[in-house]
Design a protein that fits this description.
The chain has 123 residues and is mostly beta strands. Helices cover 0% and strands 48% of the residues. It is built from no helices and eleven strands. The model has no long low-confidence stretch (mean pLDDT 96).
């Protein structure tokens, strides 16, 4: 019954910050030992893990994105967010939020996915 849905602007200008929100329904993001993750898939490329925030509030980021990524949450709204700064056209991708019960490398155990949202970085 847990469902995730991404929301946010579909178009972002270069050098700006990409901001997305994942709204979780059917379960609390602060309970149990889950990892609430952001992933993306650029055109013609594979899935990339950006990072996650755990149900205890701990964040973890891929080394590739760590310097310009922030994942946070609003527990009152049962939402978690992604901010990716200094974007370039190479950040164009379908962005997904997801739930992972184990938090292993590459989010290998994702059991619930959002439907994904296209974000295009262009001037």
């Amino acid at each position: 019954q847990v469902q995730l849905q991404e929301s946010g602007p579909g178009l972002v200008k270069p050098s700006q910050t990409l901001s997305l929100t994942c709204t979780v329904s059917g379960g609390s993001i602060t309970e149990n030992d889950y990892y609430w993750a952001w992933l993306r898939q650029p055109p013609r490329k594979g899935l990339e893990v950006i990072g996650y925030i755990s149900s205890s509030g701990t964040t973890s980021y891929s080394s590739i994105f760590k310097s310009r990524t922030n994942i946070s949450w609003d527990t009152s709204k049962n939402q978690f967010t992604l901010q990716l700064s200094s974007v370039t056209p190479e950040d164009t991708a379908v962005y997904y939020c997801a739930r992972d019960p184990l938090g292993r490398e590459y989010c290998a155990d994702v059991d619930v996915w959002g439907q994904g949202t296209q974000v295009t970085v262009s001037s």
